[in-house]
Amino acid sequence: MTVSPSIASAAKSGRVLIIGATGFIGKFVAEASLDSGLPTYVLVRPGPSRPPKSDIIIKSFKDRGGIILHGVMSDRPLMEKLLREHEIDIIISAVGGATILDQITLIEAIAAVGTVKRFLPSEFGHDVDRADPVEPGLTMYLEKRKVRRAIEKTGVPYTYICCNSIASWPYYDNKHPSEVVPPLDQFQIYGDGTVKAYFVDGPDIGKFTMKTVDDIRAINKNVHFRPSSNLYDINGLASLWEKKIGRTLPRVTVTEHDLLSMAAENRIPESIVASFTHDIFIKGCQTNFPIEGPNDIDVGTLYPEESFRTLDECFNDFLVKVGGTLETDKIATKNTAAVGVEPMAITATCA
Fold first, then answer.
1. Could you give the CA distance from residue 48 to residue 25 in angstroms, rounded to a whole number?
2. Whether residue 144 lies in the annotated active site
3. How far is the C-alpha of 328 from the C-alpha of 44, rounded, in Å?
4. Percent of the chain, pLDDT > 90?
């Protein structure tokens, strides 16, 4: 591939615009951009259309030198104006849900301005051209594929970040599994529990994403996050957590039929998560293909000197969060044992 000098150097002084920075993944990316020292701009929705908690996150960006811009990416004239006025070099989108297709309008604005050196659309999960979840998850992937085709049609330089799973216990019926501690009552095992997946800590997603934005080796590539240290199946995750809490928990099988049934209920977001869980832990969408195509590269190959935080370390964080609960449970176990009463199971709560 021949890369023009202007595209080849999204220089270290390049200006980064992040859209969706107050979301779960976007926050990690924005923090990593600020850590990198690049001039970081954050596009936020104006006024009352933002969730209340967003204001706290936005203030934290401002306090660290982030520049806040107001608007929505579906407003093409405004986006063209902002990109020109602020001389934006790199755009990273971390939006989700109903706004995924709005990125097509943003791509039109990027193409019209003609000076953006790299666009990273809202991927941050599986390779959507290879993964094939059932509905309703499939609709989201079809929309992301449309965004990919729109980028490729315009010739805008891109990087697709395929970072796989967040380092946490993968609850199939929760919107953000990473916000919930691993189980304290019982494990739900998907199928036979032997299908593996890759787990990546949020700050590592941000760190490695930012390393790719000015790397010519990542232009027009699918960048896959496959840390060998974090390749686990559900049985392995359960064993790791049992070692942390110092006790064995019962295991309950969640069958393929169970996951498909929940997906078919079309309850948002639970059904979407169930469809993705089925694709990961039944069909093996993260591991059932090799990284060997001309448009694929492993982030570990790009940056062999950089390490990933291990899932073992991430589970230590969860252990700290549930520490008080575990101490209470030990006291309850001791007291009830004296009178021959079984201790009550503790249900995991939001972290």
1. 22
2. yes
3. 42
4. 79
